[in-house]
Amino acid sequence: MRESSVRPTSRRRFNAGSAATHAALSLGALVMVFPFLWQLLTAAKSLAETAKVPPTFLPDTWNWSSFEEVFTALPFRDMLFNSVLNTVGRTVGQLVFCSLAAYAFARMQFRGRNVLFALFLSVLMVPSSLLVLPQYDIIQRLGLLNSAPALFLPGMFSAFGTFMLRQFFLTLPKELEEAARIDGASSFRIFWSIMLPLVRPALAALAVITAMWSWNDLLWPLIVNTDPQKMPISAGLTSLEGQFETNYPVMMAGSLIASLPMLVVYVFLQRHFVQSVALSGSKS
Amino acid sequence: MMSVFPSTAAAKAAGRGKRAAGAASDAPGPPKSRSQRAAYLFIAPLGIGFAAFYFWPLLQTFFYSFTEFGAFGGNTWVGTDNYVRVLKDVTVWQALGNTLIYCAIGLLALPLAIGIAALLNRRGLRGVALYRALYFIPFVTLPVAVGLVWNWLYNGDYGLINEVLEWIGADRRYWVSDPSTAVYAIGTVMVWSTTGYYLIIFMAGIKGIPQDYYEAAELDGAGPLRRFFTITLPLLSPTIFFASIICMINSLQTFDLIYIMMAEKNPAIGDTQSVVSLFYKWAFIENAQGAAAALAFLLMLIIAALTLVQFRLQKRWVHYA
Asked: Among A282, A224, A129, A211, which Cα is nearest to B250's?
């Protein structure tokens, strides 16, 4: 508590109430993080040790072979790659399609604007499971089953993304557009080089939240890509559960590796995650 | 396929009409018709995607729900047979009951998140960003990974939860394969993994409450609990309303955790099946697409009805400042 001598107020802050708050919050945080710690500890145990009663907390001997075994038990590398394709495809698609439409809805005057916008927003209300049967049909007819586009095609179009970006475009000042228009810039040019850079924070927030949903999506990949070589990791790991029902070290190692990319993205882009969630919450 | 957009010619005519009617502003720029066309071009890519993957499928599902799929392609019209089948099927009612249980349990994430958000709102508290980050991690994590580790923690023979329970003198159980506990075991994981998400929404909501309200209340001698109930909770009610709708809609569509945590041979599977997991089973395992489509429509009606009820009830408890 060296700081308290520098800043007299902080001594007052560190009272009993604050200590109790920290105790409660830390306990909660432990509950949130413990399963991942347990995952790591289990992954490092031998198969025999995971069946011990009572369970050991720390591994008797640290054994990292499960992390290699995952790559031979499944086409794990392909699955990770498919996840990357799925995530990049959906994210880029949403950024392009949603920002274009959002800009038009926010800044352009045209006939039927409100009706179209309401129609687009209605997509938000429809449960995704209601649509997967015909969506599957379309993908099949396009001959895209078990391909990367099958994973990301429907997910490239988002009502949520359009709505969120529109809210941002609405806040921009009108003068910028008018000045550019007098200079003879085309609508697309105004959009691309003037307005789009101004909503970069919203684009970043949409990108991280879309990336997360895409990486974690399960139902759709399970339906369209049934070939293990073409599955993303979210679906691929479930087949590990079927094959290795009791091999907990390998399952935990696989889970950890598969969760890692999003955790890294989260740690580095936390601000945008928080922003995207907070945005989705405040604009009701 | 139906087109959502008026043709270009119609758009032009519309633009002209509007201009003739004197609706055009005196804003500088290209003729109205050209900027109108640009607007439609901006919307077209998303519109085509929506038409192909959302609007058209919606109509298709509606059509499917009145047909029976042939084994070798081709649907036959069966009228309302599928709806009758859905309403008569015991497993549907069971899945519906389970789904409502998930919804009820899932909503527990809200009071938890509000409580944590209120604690984090304590003035001068350190480490807020760290706590927020730690609480949010379960939400970011791959659902499969979440399901697998919780299955392992719940394991009846070697699971850590049983070990802890035994240590405090409680009975051990096969949490996920015991029909009387399985749905709660899965619901608990749901709450665990979504609390962080609502926490962020509520923290943003609390931030919007003017600090002077708290200061005034403090001067009047209101303690932390009193301030929470008379200031935070009422002023947060619009956010709570929004979050409860999102939470309800999401938990009515529970699928991932059930799919991951329940093996097909699990004795408790019927007691945990949600409407969406039953839909998946019918549509993609048992090839009963027509009935599955009817089931999906039933789910949509339930979601719409419950959302409507919430909107109706909001007048009673949501205060807009």
From this structure: A129
> B309-313: which pairs have CB atoms within 8 A and are 24 or more residues apart?
B310/B241, B310/B244, B310/B245, B310/B248
Q: Classify residue B6 as left (phi > 0), alpha (psi -120 to 50) or beta.
A: beta
CB B166 within 8 A of CB B200: no
Among the partner residues B45, B135, B200, nearest to A32 by beta-carbon distance:
B135
Assign A14 to helix, strand or coil.
coil
Disruptive mutation site among B64, B103, B140, B168 for chain A (greatest number of A CBs within 10 Å): B140
Measured over the CA atoms of residue B136, residue A130, residue A135 and residue A283, the dihedral's sign is negative
**Residue A220 and residue A213: Cα distance in Å, rounded?**
12
Closest CA to B278 of B104, B58, B97: B97
Q: What are phi and psi of B77, to 5 degrees?
A: -70, 125
Handedness of CA A161, A163, A164, A167 (dihedral sign): positive
| CB B215, CB B209: distance < 8 Å | no
Q: Using CB atoms and an 8 Å cut-off, which of residues 74-133 of chain A contact chain B?
A: 96-98, 100-101, 103-105, 108-113, 116, 119-120, 123, 125-133
* Residue percentage of chain B with pLDDT more than 90: 64
Give chain B's largest Cα–Cα span: 83
The sign of the torsion formed by the CA atoms of A43, A44, A49, A52 equals negative
Helix, strand and coil in chain B, % to nearest 5: 70, 0, 25
**Dihedral of CA A61/A66/A69/A71: which sign?**
negative
Do the beta carbons of residue A105 and residue A166 sit within 8 Å?
Answer: yes
Instruction: Measure the CA–CA gap between A246 and A273, rounded to whole angstroms.
Output: 35
pLDDT band at B296 (very low <50, low <70, confident <90, very high): very high
Contact call for residues A274 and A88 (beta carbons, < 8 A): no
Nearest CA distance, B133 vs chain A (angstrom) = 8
**Residues B41-53: tens digit of each pLDDT:** 999 999 999 999 9
Closest Cα to residue B163, out of A27, A50, A228, A73?
A: A50
**Which phi and psi (to 5°) does residue A157 adopt?**
-115, 120
Instruction: Tell me the Cα Rg of chain B.
Output: 26
Quote the mean pLDDT of chain B. 86
pLDDT, tens only, B148-165: 999 999 998 888 999 999
pLDDT given for residue B17 in this prediction: 41
Rg, Å, chain A Cα set: 24
Global pTM reads 0.87
* ipTM score of complex: 0.87
CB A94 within 8 A of CB A214: no
What is the average per-residue pLDDT within A58-66? 90
* Contacts (Cβ under 8 Å, ≥6 apart) of A203: A95, A99, A165, A196
Instruction: Tokens for B5, please give them.
Output: 């957009």
A158, two tokens: 């988002």
